[in-house]
Predict the structure.
Amino acid sequence: MNNSIKITSLFLALLVFACGKKEEAETESGSVSEIKLTTEQKQNAGITFGEFQEKEMAEEITCTGLVDVPPISQASVSLPIAGYVKNTFELLPGRKVAKGEVLATITSLEYIQMQQEYLQAMSSLNLSTSEKSRQQVLSNEEVGSKKKFQQAEADQANLQAQVQGLTLKLQTLGCDMNVLNKGNISAVISLRSPIEGYIEDQSLAIGKYVTPTDALVKIVGVAHKHVELKVFEKDLGKIKMGQKIAVQTENAKASAKVFLIGRQVDLGTRTTPIHAHFILESEEAAFTVGQYVSAHILVGNQKMPTVPQAGLARVGKGGFIYVETASGAMAQIPVEIISSNPDFAGIKPLKPVPAGKLVMSGASALEAIFAKD
């Protein structure tokens, strides 16, 4: 009997010990949500207490996007004729170029042939014009044949069309027609920048054969920079034309406004593009095309619970607030940041807030303690 009692007692003791170990392991593996601090620790952290304050705050929609430019401020430079690269320059990415600046020179046999055909057509046109005038005089005096006059008239029209077509082609290639009309044929075409901007990419080398399908230089303009944002469909109903936007990167901040709102939701990301324009050119200059930005669209005012900035520990896009419960422990509450100004942050708690005293300052120190534990 005594042996049975001893075995039973030992079994119960082992069971209690095992349960205690299990609870301890679960506590250690889970995230800490409450911590007790001494009075000295509270003083060192600068913790003070208060209550939530209901304030009317500007409601914000947080989103991300990129700095971009319109098509008019982008250029892909090519040559509408085949040839060989004779000369080029240090067109390194990021180098600024002016509108009309020579980027390279191209030697082209087709270009030479085209100029030759133009001069021959001009010569034939001058002769045809004289012949038409002569036939018109003869026709008026009823000495010549009307048929010959009509043929001379048709020949002149054909040659005029040929000259006009060659003129437009040569002007497209940048040919100086005044020089050509003096009989001076050039073998070299100058490849010029159509806009002011910065070199994005280039595909040039001395001696390289280029064709009309080759994109030789890509240039990004400096004018009319804007921001392309992606807003989730749940927030679309709050977006209106003209709303102000706070745009920022790690090194720059600017104000913008909603200029265009997309009319279709991307089925993959469930977002819609929002096109925003910078308000001040001086702020726009601090941003680079293709740069990633974060943005806060100000969609209106509403009353919401707020805490002082010192009472909010920011982590990522959200953060934590802290409440000292009746037991004296500090409870950590995750929150979504709805709005923010230099003094207060409008928040939405992501789990129930226990009864107790709200931490008004020292939240960052508390977050460090929780993260350490």
